[in-house]
Amino acid sequence: MRIDPHVHCRDGNQNYKDTIKHIFKVCDEQGVDKIFDMPNTSPPIVNEKDVIERLNLVPQEAKERYHLYIGATSNPKQLQDAAEIVKKYNEVIGIKFFAGQSVGDLAIIPEDKQKLVYKTLAENNYKGVIALHCEKEEFIDNSKFNPKEPITHSYSRPIVSEVESIRDQIKFAKEFSFKGTLHVCHVSSSESVNLINSEEDIKITCAVTPHHILWDNSMLGREDGLLYKMNPPLREREEVNSLKNDLLKGKINWIETDHASHAIGEKLFSPYMSGFPSLYLYKKFIEEYLPELGLSSEQINKLTYDNIVEVFKI
Asked: pTM for this one?
């Protein structure tokens, strides 16, 4: 049994990119039994009506294999409702919080608004998972990105942006005595992993994608480099090697693909979308690459199933 807890199925207004039905065909090819779908869709998944409409898109034969996140906004009523929806629907696995701008319209940037998320959820006794996209806007400089030199994307969103955003989320969770679990999605640096692993006062986990382990930012220097543009970006080779060591040492809780399909034109031309369809890498990554890296079958089972089930209680 294997779970991919981070997939962007698209559908809705973006069904030309991908669909839930097609994603499950890829899952069958890649040996994935369950997925957790992300809410930064078009339109985004932020209320009960959105959840019901989304669940109605899931093929009948895949109902037991599908979970989704509901998105967080800076509206206290929406956050209160989201906490109740997670309790009400077994299919809703947690709340996704974009603490930085990526793809979609769910980013919450101002610190007072970010604090409001923790304050509201703590006051409503939410003890579930908040999945975090951590990139602090203060340290992002999109003016550095030049599509003619795609590697500039990795310079425009530096490691410090990720690390300082994680530091903020830990601080805010403590400030409001948040009792749930923070999950930091797609970590791209060993500094982030070490910060997360050093935390003892709150429940916090992290995951890494296949692409952040397989590739460094030299991929952005290729002729097709724009295809390898994602958020957070690919890092320097030394950073990738450090992440591999973190994986071997058990400092990363699970593997998640962050599968994100786009039309080829959207990748190679304006708006130069970020995201990579990493679900296609899953089977080979898990069954060939990780053993070659030195991970045991027990470690791989924890990274693909056991740790996920333990945290999400499914």
From this structure: 0.97
